[in-house]
Design a protein that fits this description.
By secondary structure, the chain is α/β, with parallel strands linked by helices. Helices cover 31% and strands 27% of the residues. Bound molecules: oxa(dethia)-CoA.
Length: 320
């Protein structure tokens, strides 16, 4: 028997307000056609003025708890991947812990931007393997609409808000299930490629700055190599993959990575058209929607891969 971190539940939440590409045409020198062909995005959701990351994350978490048939006090730890917490501190995770009515365990945030959910899954897996926690609620939640410069057409059309959550549980099993391989990377020399010009250095929240084209070229290369590394660690090959669940930044990055990995697009969960880039929320959103659509089924081998500011990138191989 081997201890494995196995998925017990998944859920997501998207704010009510849907913003189609056409809304940007009124204020920017852009078109629906440009946004669709260059990124694959058709619309995204924006949070209401009184709706924050912890609100989105709480609703996604509750959906995952409902699916698992668990209550918040059955959870040992909450890890939230986010770059847009409600406040500088406390963590969004402790706010979600309170909103869920959870009165035990521990909670903290992980900040690895768009790769955050992969880093959070790796953390959760490590905690389960070390005996620190048995049931871990892993959430990716973002309100990137709050850090968009609505006059910068190179960034503001690409991002959206949302949240997704997964519950991992440690189980002793003979089955080839749960998290099987993890690969994490970062390289701070690329920090200028994608950052927010805010925080302690400026005294303001700041806005996203991105060298889109340079990042695009890094993304395909690094996503394919981290997916390969995670598969190798899991003792799996490309042929074993049922679904790639990629970070949803750009359909052309998703297609380029799948091609490099030799996996056909009918084995890739794609949600970028409906949500845009929701940073750390993008993979758990795609997992939840992939299950809802009937794409991801028990026993399927998944590779989740992501890259974002830092640069930070990584992949997780898991059997659903
Ligand atoms: O989540 C973290 C990871 N994020 C990413 O990986 C994002 C990576 N980058 C991308 O997705 C793409 O690079 C973009 C979608 C951001 C841009 O696509 P691109 O094919 O790389 O275009 P580009 O940056 O080379 O820009 C081409 C042209 C430029 O005009 P000139 O210089 O050729 O005259 C841009 O100014 O498109 C222009 N442009 C726009 N035109 C209309 C940039 N944004 C827009 C826009 N509407 N919204």
């Amino acid at each position: 028997m081997t201890l494995r971190a196995i998925v017990r539940g998944v859920g997501h939440y998207l704010p009510d307000r849907i913003v189609p590409n056409s809304e940007f045409e009124a204020t920017l020198d852009t078109t629906d056609e440009w946004i669709k062909t260059r990124s694959g995005i058709e619309c995204r959701h924006f949070a209401a003025p009184d709706e924050f990351t912890s609100d989105l994350g709480t609703k996604a978490a509750q959906a995952a708890l409902d699916m698992a048939g668990l209550s918040a006090n059955d959870i040992d730890a909450v890890i939230v991947a986010t770059s847009t917490p409600d406040m500088t501190f406390p963590s969004a995770a402790t706010m979600i812990q309170e909103k869920l009515g959870m009165e035990r365990g521990f909670a903290f945030d992980v900040q690895a931007v768009c790769a955050g959910f992969v880093f959070a899954l790796a953390n959760a897996n490590g905690m389960i393997m070390s005996g620190q926690a048995n049931r871990v609620l892993v959430i990716g939640a973002e309100t990137f609409s709050r850090i968009l410069d609505m006059t910068d057409r190179g960034t503001c059309v690409l991002f959206g808000d949302g949240a997704g959550a997964v519950i991992l549980e440690g189980q002793d099993t003979d089955a080839d299930r749960g998290i099987l391989g993890v690969d994490l990377n970062s390289d701070g020399r690329y920090r200028d490629m994608l950052y927010v010009d805010g925080g302690m250095t400026s005294g303001q929240t700041g806005f996203i700055k991105m060298q889109g084209n340079a990042l695009f070229r890094q993304a395909v290369e690094k996503l394919a190599s981290t997916a390969d590394a995670a598969l190798l660690k899991a003792g799996k090959t490309h042929e074993d993959v049922d679904w790639i669940v990629p970070h949803q930044a750009n359909i052309r990055i998703i297609q380029g990575t799948a091609k490099k990995l030799g996996v056909s697009m009918d084995k890739v969960v794609v949600t970028v058209q409906d949500h845009g880039n929701t940073s750390a929320a993008s993979i758990p959103l795609a997992l939840s929607i992939g299950v809802q659509r009937g794409q991801i089924k028990p026993g399927d081998l998944l590779v989740a891969e992501a890259i974002g500011g830092g640069l930070a990138w990584g992949a997780v191989v898991l059997r659903w």
